[in-house]
Amino acid sequence: MAEVAAREEPIGGLGVLRRSINHAASSSVDIFQSGNTDGNTDGNNTSDIDMIQLPQSTHSLLFTQTKIYSLPFLFALLVLAISVACLTLAFLDTYDLQGGNIPVNVSGTVRAAQYISILIAFFMEEEIPTGTYLLRMIPKSSVERLGLSYTRFVFSAMCRLAIGYLFLLNVFLVLAQSDRVLDIFYDMMALSFVSLIDDIAFQLAKFDVLGKSLRRAASSKCFAAEVEKTPYAFRIKTTIFVKVVFVFNFLLFLGGMISVTHLQNTGRFHCGDVTVTFGDEIWENAWVVGEDGELSNSVLVYSYFNGVYKQNGTHDGRPVYQELRKTHGEGDFKDKVPAKIMYCESETAWVFTHEDIRKSKTAQESPCHWLLRYPETETYDLMDVSSGPWEIWLGVIKHGAIMDVKCNGCKDDTDCNLNGVCSSNRKCHCTSEDYYGTHCELERPCPRLIGETSNASWSVKYSRDCGHLLEYDRPLYTLRNDETYTFTNDTEAVLNEEDIVKLVYTGINEEDIVNLVYTGSRWYARKYIGGKRLTPDQVEYRAKEYHAFWDNNIGSTENIAISEPTTRSYPAGVDFYMIGEVGEQYGPFGVLYPMQEPPGRGALRCDKSVAFDDGYSWIFTHCNKNSTSS
Asked: 0.85 exceeded by the pTM?
């Protein structure tokens, strides 16, 4: 007992809180180190250099107590259960099967802290080395010579291994999911404390804090006795195995961290594609680069750039989101330059930009040519700035602009508006023919629209191969000019007959068509001269390549009417306006004459008695599955 007392350290010292596997006070040889080396091949050597002591830990009480219902044994089980429970709860709290808790990327300082912490973790983790060392160095005969159960000795060592691997697993999750240096070190300290609970509990028992029964168990002669090691000739193979296990654990840990780093740098944890919705801001004097490289003025309606943007490469360490065709699922533009959302280091901000749209004809701009800009930030994730507010260029900077960015992924069926299911790849799969869209948010369109003040009808336009033609994920309607139109008397209160004739007949010959097309927030009635001469392939390709900004010049005589902003999948009940005179003295759309009375009545209604033509049912994926690029 004198030897035991001599080895005790002050309770306030760090040595009390750290695991130490010591020999008797007269021996300076640690459990992990022999006075000689394992190079000694004399298996019969019984000198001090081949002796070892049991580690002072509550884990050792699992086999030093002969009775499994004794208080010290039950206390050791309780400490073991607390350690395992804490590490398990920490794991369950941080683990995410889909990797959703891993930051999209981290700064260089955090990256350095992650890899330094790997070394720290393996220096701090003692359970695995201790467990394997005990199994390697103490033979069954030595344990039984002390009157102890070798089965429980092995169980105790295996418990150490389990706690050690739980500790490393939690450390890996902490490192992979942290984006701040202090968070890494604080969490490492917390996990280290949990792994030391058995040492702290043992020291408290030894200092008679927890009662005499536990003090006697902690001061047992078993911990002072020197146990003979396994002869070198028999432990050489296990020595090599233990070293291999340690190196394997380290390389596995390091490889996992390298894998996370690679996935972050390649954009694996960013949202793959987003839906962008602009407000109704209009810049009336945008400078646009033409095909000849010259700059000219054009009216920029920002909502024309609504739609899906897909991750395509990186810039300044962040992903670049590139504008896709205006029918979801049709991929990249073939003959148009897409807009982009990316991080601009010169602005220290996320920006919306287009290389062919400039703020000025002569002034020097930033390299990013930004049109919208978020306030300064260093975040790596576009979703962190998705709610705005943004700064927008309208000839001058305007604050508080809207650019809503929504990831096209889902977590559960609610994200699919309960009109579909969230599949295993975190995409919405619409299960009803009544809804479609990236989040099953768009109502089944109307197959035919009827004018409120006339019997003029608009039918969904079909392509040859894939059913309905879509623009901005809304159907393309065509005026059925093979019919005879009549108008009710109350039409004169809104439009005179000259206006009506202009809408339906003027300038439309047998080879022209009039389409009702969605442009991101508004519907346009547009005349396409010679549209009937186009082949089906040409019609389909033009529909796929359609972009409201590049193909829908405001002020063109081809524009006949325009609607109020709407997000519906078809324009029934939406107010329309006839486009009259255009010019600098008028608004950006020209003079607008209401086509309904009173306001809010809407110019069109849905004819629900008509089914979709040609045997097509309205399934949004039908066109995507069978469409072909021209």
From this structure: no
